[in-house]
Amino acid sequence: MRNWIVAGNWKMHNTIAESVSLAQAIKEATTAVKNGEVVVAPPFTALHSVSETLKGSAVKLAAQNMYPEDKGAFTGEVSPLMLKDAGCAFVIVGHSERRKYFNESDNQINLKVRKALTTGLKPIVCVGETDGERNSGVTQAVVNRQVRKALDGVGVGQMDRLVVAYEPVWAIGTGKVATPEQANDVHDFIRRLLVEIYGCAGADVRILYGGSVTKDNIAELITIEDIDGALVGGASLKADAFLGIISKMP
Ligand code: PGA
């Protein structure tokens, strides 16, 4: 049995005060949540304050990125130890916006995934094809490469702390959600890949769908066997929209 996760990626939005107030609303409305985890990923500046706000609740904190070293002369970067210190349990790694705007490579993503795991953070590893890649029929090849490279050197004993998010790039922030068939095909492919590499431990990894998720389209997607929740961008910025998605979870 895999518990669902609904994670809100706030991206570069919200001041500290806005973040605290959104977190407070989510905390208050999710006290009765069962069988799953609610996660919020505020910007770095708000992590500590949101962590204080979430105390005493089951809502978990995630960072949106990290640098794969404990400390050092890496101006502008934030280490996994700092994220744990700020109260994070999860970290998003390899989001397509990081790959696209900051040229993050599969190799860098792999270093981050491994470092997150050895530091005791749960990585939410994002994979997904662009529009052009889907149109040229290489979706599976792209996802295959991204998953294998991200997990290079990751052991079977670490699978219980791994989360994968399938986020087709063409669906992110576009309002163009993947159809249930499209999502099912790729989630099923990722599941088979994880089981091929890690055996039955791969069957326990949660695979989230991300890309224009709303309370209206998640209901059907969540019925798909290998969709274990959602990574939500735009619809995580308003409490009502985010809580509407959580209300559709089994
Ligand atoms: P979106 O973003 O829900 O706004 O499409 C999803 C994401 O980038 O994780």
Which structural traits does this protein have?
TIM Barrel; 10 helices; binds 2-phosphoglycolic acid; 8-stranded parallel barrel; alpha/beta; 16% strand; 250 residues
Task: Please provide a written account of the structure.
The protein has a single domain, classed as Alpha-Beta Barrel (TIM Barrel), CATH 3.20.20. With about 250 residues, it is α/β, with parallel strands linked by helices. The protein is globular, with a radius of gyration of 17 Å. The longest helix is centred in the last third of the chain and has 19 residues, at about 180-200. It contains ten helices and eight strands. Strands 1-2-3-4-5-6-7-8 form an eight-stranded parallel β-barrel, surrounded by five helices. The protein has helices at about 15-30, 45-55, 80-85, 95-100, 105-120, 130-135, 140-150, 180-200, 215-220, 240-245, and strands at about 5-10, 35-40, 60-65, 90-95, 120-125, 165, 205-210, 230. The site of 2-phosphoglycolic acid has 13 residues, from β8. 2-phosphoglycolic acid binds near residues 210 and 211.
